[in-house]
Specification:
mainly alpha; 321 residues
Length: 321
Amino acid sequence: MDAQQLQNLITLIGAGLVVAAGVGALWIGMTELRLRALRRSRFQGATATAAGAGFGGLSAGKSGGGLGGQVVGAIRRLGQQDAVRDPAKLTVLRSKLMQAGYYNREAPVIYLGVRAAALAVATVCVVLTLPLIAGGKGGPGGIFLAAAFAAAAMLGPDQVLKARRQTREYEYADGFPDMLDLLVASVEAGLSLDAAVTRVTDELARRYPNLAIHLRFLVLELRAGRARKDAWAGFADRLGIDDARALATMLRQAEEMGSSLGETLSVFSTDMRAKRMLRAEEKALALAAKLTVPLILFIFPCLLGALMLPAGVRLMKIFGD
């Protein structure tokens, strides 16, 4: 296959992608019209028209404030389309977003809208790079650029969410033993578990602010009358770490069996301290193995060069004479 045939093949592929993009845009438009008709039919029989008008004015006030409000409104509409298309994944997505620190009620819808907008922008960017690829001007750089746009759109939002979740989980795991120590001290001082959680929340707000936010949610749920075991189970689900799930299970079992809460928390706190020390020792012992690769690739060649260079220069002088 010569260069002209390859260029024609790339041109045909680009034209096919453009046609596919047009068909996709038409399909998205038809889906939007269908979803609007579905929502309109759902809300036709609503009797609370005044409340609906009030909420509509509030939404318009939020999303109509300039260009930024319009962009947020468009992203929200894209997310609502995806949410209506698959409502089952909203619960799992909301849990992940809360673990990452996004507590807004509309966070799942906005996240789905951002992901859809990223895919749309990436599609436009890939279509714009097709003339460079077809004309042979960009070379392999155009293909790499299109691949970078596609990878950023498909993996970017998920990777950002995953990074935020991992950062929060490290903070939760680091602050969990301190929280347990404060709980043990408060309970042994005569406070109830609910009052101890309130006290610990105030103490941890400066050192572990993200963990304190989840403790405030726990305090609000307990004050609202939710069962203690359910509140602690929800707290463990929001944190997403094994230590929190173990604590929720332990508190539920202690409540069912009627055992001493102070002694149970003390034993559990000692266990958490031991686990944190074991994790630190594991990282320290793994440091030597992790330093082996940079030692071989960077330090050892430099050291070998510094040792052999004088001998090499001396041999060159001897054989040169």
